[in-house]
Amino acid sequence: MLAAFLPRLPRGAHDDVGNGDDAAVLRIGDPRVVATVDTLVQDLDYRPVWPNGRVTRGHDVGFKGVAQNLSDLNAMAAYPIGLLVSLAMPADTPVDWVLSLADGIADAIHTLGAEGCSVAGGDLSGAREVVLTITALGRLDDAGPVLRSGARPGDEIAVIGRVGEAAAGLALLETAPESGSPPGAPAGAALFEELISAQLRPRPPLGAGAAAARAGAHALMDLSDGMLRDAERLARASGVRVDLDTARLAGFADRLAPAAALLGADPMHWCLAGGEDFGLLAAFTPGTVPAGFTAIGSVADGAAELLVDGRPSTTTGWDHFAA
Amino acid sequence: MLAAFLPRLPRGAHDDVGNGDDAAVLRIGDPRVVATVDTLVQDLDYRPVWPNGRVTRGHDVGFKGVAQNLSDLNAMAAYPIGLLVSLAMPADTPVDWVLSLADGIADAIHTLGAEGCSVAGGDLSGAREVVLTITALGRLDDAGPVLRSGARPGDEIAVIGRVGEAAAGLALLETAPESGSPPGAPAGAALFEELISAQLRPRPPLGAGAAAARAGAHALMDLSDGMLRDAERLARASGVRVDLDTARLAGFADRLAPAAALLGADPMHWCLAGGEDFGLLAAFTPGTVPAGFTAIGSVADGAAELLVDGRPSTTTGWDHFAA
């Protein structure tokens, strides 16, 4: 298995030692290394077969595992240099599925623009379900790291990347055809496929973290658990009041409207409460928000809390009828 | 859970950023970082309850997970600076067991002499069985890394650490009391406990890798899959003939004799074929073998293969009746 698995994984520019020794040696070029780990578990983080009929390919799992890890590096204004991949799986996992997973890892590195990032080490073992654990190592941009604790009163809060799309895609995947029009219905077919892809293959805007750091971002984090939860974390870590302006999120919500109409959902709820988009949330001095970021809120002195349109919000969700 | 888990884990001297951000930043002090990952899976890498009645504590699993990872750094002549811990487990895993696992991680770092090594990041998730994945990051000794591919004709092969003890311990754990005297029988009780501990809590000789590098070791690797398999890997990677001398392993085998007598086993088989001791195997110019290492064989020009007492060996085992 390893003999077929390994050659599909990219070797990188930072590898100092080839494969086959006890550990990898990566040339980092900085006395600091950025490191993060994330695990994807079958049935919890994805369904082998979704209620809408979609089958999860190994490629999807490998791609998402890489994307969510590289997003964490992005949020520290770091560049990926290497991954360590540990895959535990049932003995009867089809070889094709496993090789597809390797291809998904390689595809994510390429598609997300992490060229030069290697798969520097790994481990294959048995388990009752697929458990994919990826460790990502990065080198810092000179301006990084930017922590989530640096937002200052007067700052603008800005976002880059997809907003609400992964949540809309998840809702489509979780909807069985008999419970409404199938997601593949002609009216929104292309959009629905894009939203499903946003859930299965997140696209963290790599490089935007370093760009934010160079633009002087005071705080930076990735959006993994949803705008409300994550913005509240930023507010708490920074000890400031963050106020999100839903009018500035309307463009993101509008894009989701056809899926929301199909499923009887509120697109703004996806934008505010939906996770796994792996965009970035950042705080900037007004006037310094870099290209690509959308200003969506402000930072004020006061209790460390999150407001939405000037009203207290809860991390468990957002009720636009209360606004 | 995380709130109780994290404070039990050591923070380290190399942490540049405290907990709570998207990724860890470790000050490595060298433009190169050494990285390795290993996974322990319930029922495959350990039994929740062993045939001899021993119950595996969370402490055992955490300790072993750390030990086998730090051994890989040791084998590259590197010093551990940080760990990333991903723990997937069933929802009904007792909290005490999980906290015991955290204590085992901390205990291993302390007991193995890896002070200053932090648990810099982690992830907790669900799964049908316990899957513990640890990533270890290290900084290189100036003389490192030492690869497994550098052995030269004329070198001596030497070992440091336990030999055969983890295999003897495994055999004791796998022996139900009804199939013979219980391992706790008075005659060898203290020894048997030590051997079981060797299996559950390996003691890689951290620092010996760097010492070997400073002594000019030509090749270095850790003993995880048994002397025969690992020495053959060294022979192949280096393109040399390695000849192990069982007479020089007799001291290791003698120590295992009471357990072997109890179980009707061959102690030399444990020494040659048993894995998971996590000692080191190294190749040195004759006369430069450092203190603590035991010379056990020689390197000669010729086919890249392993001999035992001058005869070809197989990686599947060793039959002393053939010798």
Automatic annotation (TrEMBL), chains A, B:
Substrate binds at residues 45, 276, 318. Mg(2+) 4 binds at residues 22, 36, 72. One of its GO terms (biological process) is thiamine biosynthetic process. It comes from the Bacteria. GO terms for molecular function: ATP binding; magnesium ion binding; thiamine-phosphate kinase activity. Keywords: ATP-binding, Kinase, Magnesium, Metal-binding, Nucleotide-binding, Thiamine biosynthesis, Transferase. Mg(2+) 1 binds at residues 38, 123. Residues 20-139 form the PurM-like N-terminal domain. ATP binds at residues 122-123, 148, 224. Mg(2+) 5 binds at residue 225. CDD domains: ThiL (cd02194). Pathway: Cofactor biosynthesis; thiamine diphosphate biosynthesis; thiamine diphosphate from thiamine phosphate: step 1/1. Mg(2+) 2 binds at residues 38, 72. Belongs to the thiamine-monophosphate kinase family. This is Thiamine-monophosphate kinase. The gene is thiL.
